[in-house]
Amino acid sequence: MKQRLLSLLFLLFWTVFPGFGQNTYSILPKPLRLDPGAGEFIFPSDPLIAVASTDPALRRLAEELANQIGKVTGKDTKVFAGNFRVKDGINFVTSKETKLGAEGYCLEVTPKRIIITAEQSKGFFYGVQTLLQLMPTQIYGSERAENIKWRIPCCYIEDRPRYAYRGLMLDVGRHFYPVAFIKKFIDLIAMHKMNTFHWHLTDDQGWRIEIKKYPKLTEIGSQRSQTMLGHYNDQKYDGKPYGGFYTQEEIRQVVKYAQERFVTVVPEIEMPGHALAALAAYPQYGNNPDKIYKVGTKWGVYEDVYAPKDETFRFLEDILTEVMDLFPGQYIHIGGDECPKNQWQESRFCQDLMKKEGLKDEHELQSYFIRRIDRFVTSKGRKMIGWDEILEGGISPNATIMSWRGTEGGMLAAQQHHDAIMSPGNFCYLDHYQADAKTQPLAIGGLTPLEESYAYDPTPANLATEEAKHIIGVQGNVWTEYMPSSEYVEYMTFPRAIALAEVGWTSAERKNITDFKQRLEVHKQRLDYLKVNYFGAPGNGKFTYRWPLKK
Ligand code: TNX
Fold first, then answer.
1. Nearest Cα to 303, choosing from 269, 271, 273, 337?
2. Which of 18, 45, 196, 341 is surrounded by the most beta carbons within 10 Å?
3. For this structure, is 203 an active site residue?
């Protein structure tokens, strides 16, 4: 009788709180396998984190975890170096036999202890991200949290990503953001188990990376006389000079910071189009040496592009040499998008070059341009990425394609056995509105709600198995024409980037929007502790046209 009453009460409880219980495991992105367990691990007063490996990255990770637990729980948390399964503690166990790959991990929580098993430090890093998400959300705070029962629900998790490339791009050309924000952005990338920060460093409206050999790139190219106000169609300007750039020292700092969070930074240096800021500094590399170029003040596409001259290639190779010295990752992004051909059509030099090289049109000239750069990048042992326009006029032998004008480019690349990263506008453009424009601060246009980003499946169904292997991942793009501040970037980026993180990590069968949204509700508390101004955050629900809004 008592038993039946209990089950009845239980049933009633479930009807009233249907989401209850699921929130216990609000892990984003969703792991490959999660078996809930009975009971919980309760933090002792002096938790230990045992690390057997001498890998410095792993030691640092353990130290950081210990610091965070110590800071927020007030418990005396220490790292113990040794191969020892500590009771009442967290164990990092390195194993070559997890079958979960370089980024995978296994996490076991029992009432007695916690064990994270992984092959590499990256895997441990992701295991730790998951572990933090099993703790009370206060663990993300920056000070001691009182009156919390520090416990972790028992479970068994096996996890690894669906795709090897999981990226987020930030455009710092249209607006410039301080290094502190770039680091916060990288923290958020890493927390959601993405592994690539694509840094769009140059554009018509600003050159943002110091190049020692060409100081005018930043002296002149990083400054513009004014900025568009309101929407493009309003054709209004603020009349205020605007500028900023990152020194090489700052860039090294950011790259190191990212490395420590297992995030690779992919620098993008735009060519042959989106080159106006560079041409304002060095007009000799344009098609009209007599023209006075000015750093762009309005958005959109400019006709001023590089001339495919030997001097230009030397200039670009010098720049790329410094860039490669700063960014040790394998990929170098060379842009390649939106390159109007008018100036090449009108240029005697270009027309002669086309004849000499047997190029039948300006698309082939673009392809010639990209191939020369590809050859250079490849000769330095790196891989080149370009936007899908670089397919026009013939794809360069070693190029990886970033597909933005829909998914066609990525598919074509994969069919030609080139790697492709999917970033189609409809799903991945985080500069689009995320809700009815009338309720939102100014954005470029479009409408890409959270649900749409979430629904994206990067691997087109009609690719053959061998071709599908070339779809190496997915990326969200934050173009910032309409994002004048870091808070604005956060508002546009989150939570949609979290949906894309799950698209990149979680297998298609495991995805479910209702379940995602339930987990997200808990997750928002974590974002609150991290002071992320996401869409829907308390205090920014009501938008008026102007920014910043009251928080
Ligand atoms: C197209 S996507 C661009 C960017 C703009 C963006 C605005 C791509 C490779 N080029 O220059 O900022 O649209 O959504």
1. 273
2. 196
3. yes
Cβ pair 114, 51 in contact under 8 A = no
Residue 298 confidence (pLDDT):
96
What whole-number distance in Å separates Cα of residue 230 and Cα of residue 237? 8
Could you give the count of Cα atoms lying within 13 Å of 530 in the half-sphere of its Cβ?
23
Q: How buried is residue 6: exposed, middle or buried, by Cβ count under 10 Å (0-12/13-18/19+)?
A: exposed
Structure tokens at 354: 């086309």
Query: What's the rounded Cα separation, in Å, for the pair 445 and 432?
Result: 5
The DSSP symbol for 246 reads B
Residue located nearest, by CA, to atom 8 of ligand 1: 337
Shortest-distance atom of ligand 1 to CA 481? 12
The answer to whether 469 touches 164, Cβ cutoff 8 Å, is no
Identify the residue whose C-alpha is closest to ligand 1 atom 2: 404
Nearest Cα residue to atom 10 of ligand 1: 337
Q: pLDDT tens digit string along 78-112?
A: 999 876 777 789 999 999 988 999 999 999 999 99
pLDDT of 274 reads: 98
Cα angle for residues 413, 501, 334 (degrees, 5° grid): 40
Query: Which ligand 1 atom sits closest to the C-alpha of 477?
Result: 2
Please give the Cα distance from 510 to 507 (Å, whole number).
Answer: 5
**Alpha-carbon distance 133 to 26, whole Å?**
7
According to DSSP, the residues that pair with 325 across neighbouring strands are: none
Phi, psi (degrees; rounded to nearest 5) at 207? -105, 120
- Which amino acid is it at 188? L
Instruction: Tell me which H or E stretch contains 322.
Output: helix 310-326
Instruction: Kindly report whether the peptide bond that precedes residue 241 is cis, defined as omega within 30 degrees of 0.
Output: no
Read off the pTM: 0.94
Mutate which of 479, 480, 493 for ligand 1 pocket (most atoms within 8 A of beta carbon): 479
Pocket of ligand 1 (CB under 6 A): 337-338, 387, 404, 429, 431, 444, 479, 481
Active site (annotated) includes residue 192 = no
Atom index in ligand 1 nearest the CA of residue 338 equals: 10
Residue with tokens 């620098």: 267
